[in-house]
Design a protein that fits this description.
This protein is α/β, with parallel strands linked by helices and 183 residues long. 26% of the residues lie in helices and 28% in strands. The strands form two sheets. Strands 1-2-3-4 form a four-stranded mixed β-sheet, with helices on one face. A hairpin with a 2-residue loop joins strand 2 and strand 3. Helix 1 runs parallel beside helix 2. It is globular, with a radius of gyration of 20 Å. The termini are far apart.
Length: 183
Amino acid sequence: MKYQIFGKNIEITDAISSTVQKKLARMDKYFKDTDNINCRVVCSVHSSIQKVEATIFLPKVTLRAEVRDKDLYNAIDKAIDKLEDQMRKLKTRASNSRTIKLGEELALNTIRELEEEEKEEEVVVRTKSYDLEPMSIDDAITRMEALGHTFFLYLDEDDHRISVVYERKDGGYGVIEAENPIK
């Protein structure tokens, strides 16, 4: 794996860097070709809370974990555990689906079997459809807050692209826009 380790409000020491690389090396067994896999870890400090964001970029999927803890090393451990949980879920999806070709980049046979309580298949519980109305981002935020949701799908009135506005964990809002406009 190729590692990128960054710090925000914290200096990444050799000890932190080697710990992150050692812990992420546990993930190597899940991939067939580790030379083409990039991993980015961002360690940050906000008052007394340590935050670790770990992202593994694969050709067809991205794995991401974000953990906050009082101790940086505990946060690193928890982030790696979350990434391993995501790998188990991917194994289940890849083995149950003919459309997802994750097996090409993952060594699925090395991923641990799911625990009995985790074997329940994920099922779509509800499907909702509605017409997208052109609106400004301010109108979308107002509607999202009125509904009490953490995200809202809308059609941007300026560029006619499907967009999603969402509440960020660290405060404020984010917007995800589709690259291709509606024709």
